[in-house]
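User: I'm writing a tutorial on reading structure tokens. Could you give me a worked example: one chain, its sequence, then its tokens, then a sentence or two explaining what the tokens reveal?
Assistant: Sure. Here is the example chain.
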Amino acid sequence: MSCVRATDFFLPTLKDDPADAEAISHRLLVRGGFVRQVGSGLYTYLPLGQRVMLKIESIIREEMNTIGVEWSMPVLLPAELWKASGRYDVETIALHEIGHLSGLGHSAIGETETGATGRKVTASGSVMFPIAFGAGVVTNRNLQPDDIAGISDLYPDGGFAAATGTVSGLIVKNGQGVYGAHVVAFNPATGTMVGNFTLKADGSFTIAGLSPGPHVLRVEPLDDGDVESFVGGTPDLDFRVTFSSRFVVVPAGGDSGSVTINVVRK
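And here are its predicted structure tokens:
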């Protein structure tokens, strides 16, 4: 058995809790050096976390081998399996995964409903929405305004910052910040929507890449889908959908100024 000195082992622990960590498990895993967050809902297994995962895999494999039911599926599967679940649009899937590769997390601009056959998408305003449309729908082969704003914010060209603006502010409930709220900026002149999340305990948010002009802000809980697809920790879901009481004017090359939106419990 090989041994590694603790002083030589890569174990980047933290003294304090991460600012965006609400769940105890999230705080302990990050502080203990098991995982490190690299984006919204995206985590890297550090060496210690990888060892734990491999140990869990070995235990599961041992039990499955005992009852003789373990199997291994090929990387490539027949197209019929993907078509049956409505996920055969390779171009849409590739564009979504390229978004992740480029640094984008999931977007929550979309609507779903649950039926006898499971959850299905009824509307989507982003390629990065985590659930695909049914078979035959190719809408998400093209980047939507939310995707364009996100990727342009990460990799701006020379005139992007000057031509667009940002809106920032706080989402508050009973005087306390709301973590994990979904905030959408709607431009009534163009019909475009760009969103982001409150990722800090104080309920602060920033939405970049907005076209100049008046916008309506909509705040909603992440109760339409798997919340872990969007944010880490435990988001607050106990509040009603709320709109800004006035238009928020976004200037070119600047910020709207801090906007505070108070939400109430359901």
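What the tokens reveal: The helical segments are 24-31, 47-67, 79-84, 90-101, 145-154, 160-163. The mean pLDDT is 83.
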